[in-house]
Amino acid sequence: MRDHGPINIETHLSRIALFSGLEPEHIATIAKVTREIRCKKGETLFHRGDPCNGFHIVVYGQIKLSFTSPQGIEKVVEVIGQGQTFGEAIMFLDKPYIVSTQALSDSLLLHVPKSAIFAELDQDHEFGRKMLAGLAMRAHQLMLDVEGYSLLSGKERIIGYLLHEIPESEQGRDKVVIELTVTKGVIASRLNLTQEHFSRILHELSDLGLIQVDGRHISIPCLARLQAQQQ
Q: 79-89: per-residue pLDDT in tens?
């Protein structure tokens, strides 16, 4: 487990988009009831069916949101990283969680209770608009996911994922290198593919000279050629 010592909760709250623009005294009030949660790699934060009493912010680490079928097949819904939040929609519905979570790496999270959010909504209409905007973005991303599963081939989904993972420092270059931050099994599930299908497509792209795979490192010799596969 990473040991960063005590953190300034107010500072971390002020950095997320949802709380940007809030008066310092309002952030201080929310910070007083916000608690830290430290998860070791592989640890479960909550299970499907557990009550939702607020939402979470990832300070560092990665959290996997997933479903598991009665047959034990896992479907990864999303991987939440540093600075991202999750649980807002269920918090408003006043229903139990519909997904389970697991830390993919040692992680530190902040849990903001819904009582603090509801109190702020009563005082600040702008805060309410920001919350709605955040929920709308999540809904939009969900629709894009459904579109991808329904209309895009497995190869197109994987290429789209790789292009999305190109770091900002590599943008604009023709030859780039990507380091996968999660296992290939997690990525396959996130893209609604079996691990076998995912691996087969990686091999096909490699045989075509579009990528070079070395563990979690993927080199793209010619970005334009890879992008052309989606056109």
A: 999 989 999 88
Phi, psi values for residue 65, rounded to 5°: -105, 130
CB count within 10 Å of CB 52 equals 19
Reading across the β-sheet that carries 100-103, which strands appear in turn? Answer: 74-80, 63-68, 100-103
Are the CB atoms for 177 and 218 separated by under 8 Å? yes
pTM: 0.80
Residue 134 CA: distances (Å) to CA of 24, 41, 55, 81, 217 = 21, 28, 13, 16, 32
Quick one: tokens of 105? 């790496």
Q: Alpha-carbon dihedral of residues 56, 61, 64, 65, nearest 10 degrees?
A: 10
110, two tokens: 């902040």
Q: Which residues of the chain have pLDDT under 50?
A: none
* CA distance linking residue 231 with residue 211, whole number of Å: 17
Q: What whole-number distance in Å separates Cα of residue 149 and Cα of residue 14? A: 35
Angle between helices 125-151 and 114-123 (to 10 degrees): 120
**What does the DSSP assignment read for 167-199?**
-GGGTT-SSEEEE-SS-HHHHHHHTT--HHHHH
Q: How far apart are CA 231 and CA 213, in angstroms?
A: 23
